[in-house]
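re: ur question from the group chat, yeah i did fold both. here u go
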Amino acid sequence: MYQTYFGLTKEPFSMTPDPAFLFLTGAHREALAGLSYAILGGKGFVVLTGDAGTGKTTLLTKMLRSIPPSRATFSVVLNPLLSPDEFLEMALLDFGVKEVPASKAQRLVLLREFLSQSRKQGKISVLVVDEAHKLAPAVLEEIRLLSNFELAETKLLQIVMAGQNELATVLNREDLRQFKQRISVRLTLPALSPLDVEHYIQHRWTKAGGQAHPFSAEAMAEITRWSTGIPRLVNVLSDNSLVLAFGEGTKSVTAQHVTEVASDLELRARGPHRATVAQASVRAGKRVNGEAIGQPAAVSFPSIERYIPEASKPSLLARWVTKIRLGEVRQG
């Protein structure tokens, strides 16, 4: 919608997990390296956790593309709301098995044959389970038993489980202690720091064909405050703020644009506004009031709750459509 207006070739804040836009913080680099290490090193079980929207699926996609097909074969289960039998069937289908037997015993024999054949070909077989925090206990037990496929010297199946922070709570249950004992590598993706938020936006802007992003320092502070460092929320706030700026015919995104979008998204920051401009938009060598600013102090992000507007008003989409109808949108 606004790409041409801002001189872009792609949409910078798309919600799809495109690894080309992946912004690697130190924690992301560590997690990516940990995933590759666990898989190529035959560690068996690896668990990746993080809050919703921190980039787990994008990181998994990057990992899948970074390991060549000659080294590994993958089965990716994206929908965890399956029965144990359905889960086993899905795993086989995504490994490329076209005819799955109806009998569970035959399915297990077929899976072992597939894993053994892949091993003979020098390939590592990897089962990747996304949204794993939603797995039923019976499916978790099925996954644990699949890890029993092994040779004397190595596991035949490497298992990667990614999920929200609730997954850690699930795995701490007493009845899943056998499962937890098999986890060899645990990785976590935290929220972005205020400095990371600015670097994240500039990174995606550059990847989309732009140069210097149009967000003011005050707008960056508001994005940091409302998003609480969650990349998905940064994308939503940034994208809709650009829509508003485009609709108004301005090349700069202001704090007012971000605040208006946050209201439309029904977000509310609990507590006082703590993310200052100096904290949220620090650049190397930048000065505030004549003083050089270095790495900002840690910021406690406010939690998010539903925003209840004091008075009803048209939604962001409705106001955007109205602007189009009234001819208020000036094309760039």
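okk and heres the other one u asked abt
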Amino acid sequence: MIRCIDTVLSAFGLVFLSPLILFLYVVGLVDTGAPMFRQTRVGRDQKPFTLVKFRTMHPDTLHVASHLADAAAITRWGRFLRRTKLDELPQLWNVLKGEMSLVGPRPCLLNQKELVAERAARGVFDVRPGITGLAQVQGIDMSTPRLLAEIDADMIRTLSLRRYFKYIVQTVLGQGSGDRVRKKAQR
């Protein structure tokens, strides 16, 4: 049932939001010269897939989890995209392809070994990763792997159609702080 809803909503979103997506793409071209960002992430059953997002950091930024990135790497446009969560819109393509769900645990990087282990121990990889979920609307990010894995497992265990739509609405309305970044570069 959820997969069917994911397919319909992502297809509808890609069509209906295509003018906005095109606008964000063009502004991203001006901002960084490379508006799309592709990164290999851990998907369902721990299979890697390529996640697509709008770029929020300078193109030469290292591929690390957001909480390990330097805040100075985020462009002014990128801050706006992150605050409004518009940087996530290209992931509707990942949802349409069946690599992700609208609601599920956020996909982590392959090198986030502690988070991968915590999630594996709790069965989090038994479901498709999502664009948003309980952890995101509660402001819990990947800087706390054990807590994140526990919240993800709880969300999976208690996910209902009502909660699925609740998390989407909460995300659209701006609940949750998004992934944190370091305030200053580590020396």
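fwiw on the second one: The longest helix spans residues 2-16. The longest strand covers residues 36-42. idk if thats what u expected
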